[in-house]
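Hi U.,

Before I forget, here's the chain from the pilot set. I'm dumping it here mostly so it's searchable later in email.
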Amino acid sequence: MRKIIALLFMWAAAHGCAEAADSSVKFVTVDGTASQLRVDFNQAKGKVRLLFVVDPICPGCLRGLDDMNRDLLEHSRDPRLETFVVHVPVLKPPPTASDVPPAAELLKNPNVRHYWDPSGNFGRALSDGVDLRNGSKPVYAWDVWLIYGPDAVWQGTLPPKPLLLMHQLRALEGSKQFPRLDSDIFSKEVQKVIATLPSVAMQ
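Structure:
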């Protein structure tokens, strides 16, 4: 609880700064089919790709971003790893584009790209693409954290199925197919996939 409160203070402070001055964090506003995200994802074929889908004002999502930064991204400059973060409006009152930069500031890595989907369509498309369900009931995809291998290709309108999807959703509690997010385990799985790629000079 203390960590969540601290993250909310961090978000509020960063949000105030974002209103006062232009943020260094850039993001792309996607269309209803996330076509630019699809292009960027496919252009990174051959790398390990991470996909995070978050609400930029959700405390649990902010904690997840902070944990991913600490356990994986902050100390990595590996060019074989690309991270795509899609910010979607879920909570009420709904977030706006101005909420994206403060949340994005939690990830300290040069190989991260941020996207804002004001329609929320991406969460539905991802749910369909990965068959995110609780029994027979579809679950909207947000607060989910995915790993894609170097051979993954996004064809058509639906995102491809990942090597691993972890989540922080009550609707998926107890799922064996989709485990609850553990950033340490997630990081170790990412490193395993990276280790299968040819070595490169670090940035």
